[in-house]
Specification:
Blueprint: E1 2-8, H1 14-27, E2 37-44, E3 54-61, E4 68-74, H2 77-122
Parallel strand pairs: 1-2
Antiparallel strand pairs: 2-3, 3-4
């Protein structure tokens, strides 16, 4: 899983980097082999003025599918990261599961057609 982090309007501390990586590894454990790249953008919207202004945007690239983009704004950067990761992982997992389900259904439909064709070919 390729992870890129970008911080604007504040410095990205090692503990914050580790927190992001730990959350991503945990949340994407099931789908990490299907994820192309994850971009995490962290930003302090209001700067030193304070308030509900910590933003985390997560973009997840899934090969052959639309990009998943989640944006979360909280008073606390850790809270914004936690919620954004949770939402992004849920959305990515649903997209991967749906694609797998559709692929299986397509194989099942093709197998049914093959079986029907073989039966028809064997009967006079």
């Amino acid at each position: 899983m390729n992870v890129q982090m970008v911080a604007k309007e504040f410095s990205l501390s090692p503990s914050l980097q580790e927190h992001v990586l730990r959350r991503l590894r945990s949340a994407f454990a099931r789908t990490q082999h299907r994820v192309g790249r994850i971009i995490v953008r962290l930003r302090d919207l209001n700067g030193p003025r304070g308030g509900r202004d910590k933003a985390c945007q997560i973009s997840v690239e899934l090969p052959g599918q639309p990009e998943v983009v989640i944006r979360e704004v909280q008073e606390n950067m850790y809270g914004a990261i936690d919620n954004a990761v949770k939402r992004a992982a849920y959305r990515a997992m649903r997209m991967v599961d749906r694609k797998s389900r559709l692929a299986r259904r397509g194989r099942d439909d093709r197998q049914l057609r093959i079986d029907d064709d073989e039966k028809d070919a064997g009967q006079p």
